[in-house]
């Protein structure tokens, strides 16, 4: 059984698997960039009542497992995160601009799925095993 969270009025267990893809699947994410993207996620998440559980990346996308509260505005978080991370990555890793198309870092689309009844450890293992070849 999953561990449940609570607040003043409810008990909940809201876990999500989120995948962000680099625009046109450009292969620009290495360990340093992934680490910085994760730091940005961790900096923004408290404002949205979210907690990072697991993180991993491949050359052209990231996988994130997080838990949220019922009042979490996930779409607002996604917009804030994509905007801030895109701006900061391009500023802090200027060479990356040469590999991007028209300054875009992230694709407009993303994948967000609830984890349903799948044990969190199964999803964590899946994300841990993502990445294949690193840049």
Automatic annotation (TrEMBL):
InterPro entries: Transposase_17, Transposase_17_sf. Pfam families: Y1_Tnp. Residues 11-130 form the Transposase IS200-like domain. Signal peptide: none annotated. NCBIfam families: transpos_IS200. This is IS200/IS605 family transposase.
């Amino acid at each position: 059984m999953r561990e449940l969270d609570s607040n003043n009025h409810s008990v909940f267990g809201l876990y999500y698997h989120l995948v962000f893809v680099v625009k046109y699947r450009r292969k620009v994410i290495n360990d340093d960039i992934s680490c910085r993207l994760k730091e940005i996620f961790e900096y923004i998440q408290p404002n949205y009542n979210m907690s990072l559980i697991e993180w991993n990346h491949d050359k052209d996308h990231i996988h994130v497992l997080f838990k949220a509260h019922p009042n979490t505005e996930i779409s607002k978080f996604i917009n804030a995160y994509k905007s801030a991370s895109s701006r900061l990555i391009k500023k802090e890793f200027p060479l990356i601009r040469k590999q991007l198309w028209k300054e875009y870092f992230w694709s407009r689309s993303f994948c967000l799925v609830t984890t349903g009844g799948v044990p969190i450890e199964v999803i964590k293992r899946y994300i841990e095993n993502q990445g294949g070849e690193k840049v």
